[in-house]
Design brief:
Family: Belongs to the ABC transporter superfamily.
CATH superfamily of the largest domain: P-loop containing nucleotide triphosphate hydrolases
Strand content: 35-45%
GO cellular component, one term: ATP-binding cassette (ABC) transporter complex
CATH class of the largest domain: Alpha Beta
InterPro entries: AAA+_ATPase, ABC_SmlMolc_Importer, ABC_transporter-like_ATP-bd, ABC_transporter-like_CS, ABC_transpr_FbpC, Mo/tungstate-bd_C_term_dom, P-loop_NTPase, Transp-assoc_OB_typ2
Number of strands: 21
CATH architecture of the largest domain: 3-Layer(aba) Sandwich
Number of helices: 8
Strand order of the largest sheet: 7-8-9-3-10-11
GO molecular function: ABC-type ferric iron transporter activity; ATP binding; ATP hydrolysis activity
CATH topology of the largest domain: Rossmann fold
Bound molecules: adenosine-5'-triphosphate
Structural class: alpha+beta
Radius of gyration: 24 Å
Order of helices and strands: EEEHEEEEHHHEHEHEEHHEEEEEEEEEE
Shape: globular
Helix content: 10-25%
Keywords: ATP-binding, Cell membrane, Ion transport, Iron, Iron transport, Membrane, Nucleotide-binding, Transport
Length: 346
């Protein structure tokens, strides 16, 4: 049974439709990432779940309790939901101890012990307790914000771009630490992010919003390999998009005949490959079978590199990924494809 259930939630601001009948199920103890372009309704959805606003239409239920039925809502402070924003929203004039203590109920016994335990949970040194937020790094501040939210022992934690102000290394480390500690605490979590890699690595369910609608929700790997449409494909990562003709379990395209799940489609289709599916090997023997191309551009980016090849029909493919091979431009290569192509549903 799902823990959080959102059923056809709709929200307008004047003439602006922010959410248009969004339905989403979240399992207990799971991690869901909500992604989508700017203005697609991610924060609005999170605010409706938190109870900062009510939906115009639709229902939201948590653990069997109705939180919102249209505009009739249970207020935010009675929902048992934690919320961490992009900037952490710590109180600048309070010490770290008082910031975390703010999350504890009035009259909590062993207050200091609880605060210290929460510091340990978020992996922060208790010596920081007497400092003020500006004396901490961005990553430490986010952990304090999380500790404050955890102090209320929420059933559900909502994270609105909590790592976006951090730089790359710290961001990844903080994300991993936060994911691990929320999982250990068994707290169901919903993360809103702009960052596809973050969403794919953080969550067991990714939900894609576009123009206020839920386009697709599912396991990260499924969405990445089998996106519903080309916009979702490109939103979740680099994609090679080709025209082709579909048969039963295969497609013919400029790369030859490829295995593909064609969902009963025949004839002209659009197919997608992820760049890491395309392999190239230098080959001078063009009498061999296969698809040949010329390297026209090589971009070196450290661990990642991208090689652009041009096919006989003038089509260019950008093959990005890891690899030590940096063939000079002009090299003739033979292309092969690993794994099935994905055909978009009609
Ligand atoms: N209080 C408001 N009043 C009027 N319009 C609003 C309000 N809040 C949000 N909107 C509009 O609703 C739409 C969805 O906004 P929302 O903030 O949910 O998008 P988002 O996906 O979180 O965007 P971003 O990634 O840029 O934060 C946008 O077009 C936004 O301008």
């Amino acid at each position: 049974m799902s823990f959080l259930s959102i059923d056809k939630a709709g929200k307008r601001y004047g003439a602006m439709v922010a959410l248009d009948g969004v339905s989403l199920e979240v399992a207990s103890g799971s991690r869901t990432a909500i992604v989508g372009p700017s203005g697609s309704g991610k924060t609005t959805l999170l605010r409706l779940i938190a109870g900062f606003e009510g939906p115009d239409t639709g229902r939201i239920a948590l653990n069997g309790t109705i939180l919102a039925d249209g505009p009739a809502i249970v207020p935010a402070h009675r929902r048992g939901i934690g919320f961490v924003t992009q900037d952490g929203a710590l109180f600048p004039h309070l010490t770290i101890a008082d910031n975390i203590g703010f999350g504890l109920e009035r009259g909590t016994t062993n207050r200091e012990d609880r605060i210290r335990a929460l510091m340990r949970t978020v992996d922060l040194d208790p010596r920081l307790l007497e400092r003020r937020p500006h004396q901490l790094s961005g990553g430490q501040q986010q952990r304090v914000a999380l500790a404050r939210a955890l102090a209320r022992q929420p059933k559900l934690m909502l994270l609105d771009e909590p790592f976006s102000a951090l730089d790359t290394g710290l961001r990844e480390a903080t994300r991993k630490a936060v994911a691990a500690l929320l999982q250990a605490a068994g707290v169901t979590t919903i993360l809103v992010t702009h960052d596809q890699t973050e969403a794919l690595s953080f969550a067991d369910q990714v939900a894609v919003l576009r123009e206020g609608r839920l386009v697709q929700a599912g396991a990260p790997h499924d969405l990445y390999r089998r996106p519903r449409d080309r916009e979702t494909a490109l939103f979740l990562g680099e994609a090679i998009l080709l025209k082709g003709q579909a048969g039963v379990g295969w497609v013919d395209c400029v790369l030859g005949r490829l295995a593909a799940g064609t969902h009963g489609q025949r004839g002209d289709i659009e197919l997608m490959l992820r760049p890491e599916q395309v392999k190239f090997t230098p080959s001078a023997d063009e009498t061999a079978q296969g698809c040949f191309a010329s390297v026209v551009d090589v971009e070196f980016g450290g661990a990642l590199r991208a090689v652009t090849v041009e096919l006989a029909d003038g089509n260019r493919l950008r093959i990005s990924g890891t690899g030590l091979d940096l063939p000079p431009t002009g090299t003739r290569v033979r292309l092969s494809v690993a794994g099935p192509a994905h055909v978009f549903e009609a």
